Amino acid sequence: xxxxxxxxxxxxxxxxxxxxxxxxxxxxxxxxxxxxxxxxxxxxxxxxxxxxxxxxxxxxxxxxxxxxxxxxxxxxxxxxxxxxxxxxxxxxxxxxxxxxxxxxxxxxxxxxxx
Length: 114
Prior knowledge:
alpha+beta
């Protein structure tokens, strides 16, 4: 499995606004393109940062799903204009799970598992 570990730095004072947007608008749009989403994980030491994971079966699936999402009307005509002004910066690490990778269960509350 391919995992993107995504770290977002939100402009000061806007994390709650961004999290609400992320959970209610971004996650459904990402899932509509076949992506699995885990998170967000709120940074307890930095109120302007959160981390989330985006999962794909293969690198080829990642390329296809990302292209469909970012070239689609929902991103271009709606989500991008809301998300990008709230972000200060972001980092993405593309990882592959090992044979012994485990996930012990869903988060409590928030976004339901797909």
